[in-house]
Amino acid sequence: MEDVSHMGVIATNNILDPAIINYNEADAYNIAIQNLQNTELDPFRAAFEQNMWDADMNMHTTVDTFINASTAVMEVVRVNELAAAAVAADDLPTAQNVKDYAVANDVILDTAEVDAYNQGLSDVTLATQSYAALQAVYSSPDAMSALQADADASGITADFAQSTVAFNQSTGDVEFTITDGTNSALLTYSATAFYSADNADILTQGETNPYYTNGITQAQSACLLNTAASVGACSGRSGFGPPPNTLLWTAPMDQGGVPMGYTDANGDIINYAAGDTVIDPNGGTEVGFFDNNMVFNCTNANYCSVTV
């Protein structure tokens, strides 16, 4: 109601009547909360969940590190692509812009950048595999039951706060080490059944990620194709922040996210204020207007989770 009120839409008087809570319902809610408070949580699952959470956080950190390391590589590749296309099309102004950018920004890969990029590939592979393996095993009742049975059979009264779960990349096993502080046991479960049968499926899914569609791989060409006088502004880009000339999102679009701001040619973040016009950076067309963390009168499905 609050959101549509900005659009001058008036709700009927009884719109919220179905949400009214009676005292019997309140008593039922209170009893449910009391039951939850009296429930003893399963320490075995709690330990697995904590390690799975840690693996998730490590995965995101590792991907961020790789993005920083890959910026230099993507820049060199994109400059070469743009230069080759300009020469092939006999587009001398564009070729000159690309040349000026390459000279001004010293677009050369050194050995440290190559090593960082290659190491990042290995690190991302392991980090994503680790979280995926723990998630797969945790989501499988059979796998968790098997690990629980092994834990019971070990004879160890485990302190699950000290227990660890990890993925062994060489064997494909999820390894759950339980300990009572003195004795320990290694429980394993093979996660090989959860491997993807086709890597192409995984790479295809990545092509729809907002970083790929709106990140440096796409924005860099627009940055380089500015006039020779302004192309140098793009060199202010930092691998530790978003690239220039891109939209910033409240959340991924498939989770209801909408554009919340943008980066200018220098990579500086400009947050939308109420009433601001949202512009499609690919072509400069108007998408809608921003208000209350939403985009209204949205006409472009590429940038809005809900269109009109």
Overview of this protein structure:
The protein is an alpha+beta fold. It folds into two domains: 43-70 and 111-195, no CATH class; 197-308, no CATH class. The chain is built from nine helices and nine strands. The chain has helices at residues 2-5, 23-37, 43-88, 92-104, 111-138, 141-153, 199-206, 210-214, 216-224, and strands spanning 164-168, 173-179, 184-190, 247-249, 259-263, 269-271, 277-279, 286-291, 294-296. The strands form three sheets. The chain has a three-stranded antiparallel beta sheet. Strands 4-5-6 form a three-stranded antiparallel beta sheet, with no helix packed on it. The model is unreliable at 216-241 (pLDDT under 50).
**Helical region count?**
9
Q: Report the average pLDDT across residues.
A: 74
First-last Cα distance: 17 Å
Strand order in the largest sheet: 1-2-3
Structural class: alpha+beta
Total number of strands: 9
Question: How much is the radius of gyration in Å?
Answer: 26 Å
Tell me, what's the shape? flat
Can you summarize the main beta sheet?
3 strands, antiparallel
Subunit arrangement of the protein: single chain
Q: Return residue spans where pLDDT drops below 50 for at least 5 consecutive residues.
A: 216-241
Brief overview:
This protein is α+β, with helices and mostly antiparallel strands and 308 residues long. The chain has helices spanning 2-5, 23-37, 43-88, 92-104, 111-138, 141-153, 199-206, 210-214, 216-224, and strands at residues 164-168, 173-179, 184-190, 247-249, 259-263, 269-271, 277-279, 286-291, 294-296. It folds into 2 domains: 43-70 and 111-195, no CATH class; 197-308, no CATH class.
